Amino acid sequence: MAVKQVRVALVGAGNIGRAFLQLMLDKAELLRQRHGFEMTLVGLADRSGAALDPAGLRPADILSLKAAGRGAAALPAHGQPGMPPDELVRRCGADLLLEASPTNIVDGQPGLRTIETALGLKMHVVSANKGPLVLAYPHLMALARQQGVALKHSAAVAGSCPTVNIGQRDLLGCQVARLEGIFNMTTNTILCRMAEKGLSFDVALAQAQAEGIAEADPTLDIDGWDAANKLVILANSVLGLPVTLADVEVEGIRGVRIEALQRAQAEGSAIKLLATAAQAGDGYKLAVRPTTIPLTHPLARLTADQMGIIYYTDVQGTIAAVAGQQGVLTTAGAMLRDVVAICG
Amino acid sequence: MAVKQVRVALVGAGNIGRAFLQLMLDKAELLRQRHGFEMTLVGLADRSGAALDPAGLRPADILSLKAAGRGAAALPAHGQPGMPPDELVRRCGADLLLEASPTNIVDGQPGLRTIETALGLKMHVVSANKGPLVLAYPHLMALARQQGVALKHSAAVAGSCPTVNIGQRDLLGCQVARLEGIFNMTTNTILCRMAEKGLSFDVALAQAQAEGIAEADPTLDIDGWDAANKLVILANSVLGLPVTLADVEVEGIRGVRIEALQRAQAEGSAIKLLATAAQAGDGYKLAVRPTTIPLTHPLARLTADQMGIIYYTDVQGTIAAVAGQQGVLTTAGAMLRDVVAICG
């Protein structure tokens, strides 16, 4: 069988982008042998600018450069200081764009423009970046359909947990009465530690920040916006609802007290930051808020490194999925599964 | 958009077949509106023989007939006493065969012949019947590929739990180091009740039989063969191993004592009938046996109406799925999802 050549461009070379570059090296043989294709990295963009080579950049060179604290623009012979990602996309001739740049939920940029440019050029897109999806899901999907290419985003909703895939591919023929998910690792870690170790919110947050689990500005996580982003993407992609963040009632975990967590435990339940879509009338009500659930609930015992979802359906009963050992690698692994689904 | 007409034949009108007929009624509008197709039942076979009508049998008529304790052969104008299912398949002109007849693990018949006949005629096949898959998976899949049709079987491995689908479609790019599953409801129910209520194996079995959860001859379930069947199908379909039952070490639950269950509970663990495929050298070791797992294991707390699986992977971490409220309806629901995946 002839091995198919797939030219890819990667935008974003932070933790997830670099993990993906490493997977390109580690998985090259498996992709060739089991799935019949090879990826060539024809372009890369990061904050410094971009690097391009139609003959293929070497992922190992990029990883060395990043390890030395330098950016793509510094790559000898191929670096392009200050080149924006959409220009990279226009010039690199890729078949598939990997979008792994940071989520911007204000206007989705520069990711939104990058993805629009790629779809406009009939490139497939695999996005771990939530911003463009949260802000413009129906528009981007319509564009992808019109251009005859795929836009996949299974890494954007809870790492490798197949939240979107189960909803889109396994619940065929079902009505979803309700879905509930724990989609944010930072808040889940903080709530777990508050409950297990009796730490106050402030101490648990400071600890998580010291360990690099929570960001210096933890607002997006702590106040529920990251979970709400993921809920919006699920509502669009699985429930077919053209909703945005404005349609979600959002409450974060700043107000959760140790006493409440301990009382819940004593009563055989747990408090989790639950994202919920519940059928109401002709539509669904969307919310993210700290919620008391019984310990018999499939998501009640999730540990700090797990994320999960449960669908309540009419003819398939309940379907829950829990992914463990979640982190940068598993998010890159989810991007890889999207690439294989498109190219394999 | 034009509504596509799909002509289906159903073999087997036991609990699952009848639940599927009911879904044909209940879901007709959803299938038409959301997925753009309509099913017409052009043939049905059961123990009495068959019924055929190229213009379409009415599922409601069949359900009434079965409710009155009669078979397909008794259907006025369309009944064919004694017609075997493979002859029905040859004569009915269906596009898709639904195989829901009882599992025969000795020689897979008559299901194996029925499925071979259908594939030979370029019909898609959706099978909830495990026998043919356990005995002849590589042969049937090769035949389906050669004929350019689909053979789907997500209902054959743990009801609506997406065991096969996650393995085939979400773990793309992964190496599976190990999978573990609880695939048999009868044994899970008996072990749950022994642990919770302190019942002996014999009493718990008799109770399950009285309730219709366990069969009069419970050997296939109790001695682990049903779970082993499902493990063989997963090993073939997900791990790509051309194995059969002879490759699985099988031990049932007859030897599990209340004392052992209670000791496990006291030590923070549970005993479950676990089906396992574990990487060993170049291949996998397959086993079904009562296994002590810690309560932190994602499958340790499964209740009587749940089934589940966990995959241990290299780049997606662990992925567990648990399906609840399992029974006849959810198995029919899983057949429906396969139909939609093929026709939608």
- Assembly state: homodimer
Helix content of chain A: 25-40%
Unreliable runs of chain A = none
| Order of helical and strand elements of chain A | EHHEEHEHEHEHEHEHHHHEHEEEEH
- Going across the biggest sheet of chain A, name each strand in turn: 4-3-2-1-5-6-7
Shape call of chain A: globular
Number of helices of chain A: 13
Description:
- Two copies of one chain form a homodimer.
- Chain A is α/β, with parallel strands linked by helices and 344 residues long.
- Chain A is 40% helix and 26% strand.
- Chain A has helices at 15-26, 28-35, 59-67, 85-92, 111-120, 131-147, 163-170, 185-197, 201-210, 219-222, 225-237, 258-266, 328-343, and strands at residues 4-11, 37-46, 49-57, 79-81, 96-99, 124-127, 151-152, 176-182, 248-250, 269-280, 283-294, 307-313, 318-324.
- In chain A, the strands form two sheets. Chain A has a seven-stranded mixed β-sheet, sandwiched between helices. A six-stranded mixed β-sheet of chain A has the order 9-11-10-8-12-13.
- The model of chain A has no long low-confidence stretch (mean pLDDT 96).
- Strand 13 of chain A pairs antiparallel with strand 13 of chain B, so a sheet runs across the interface.
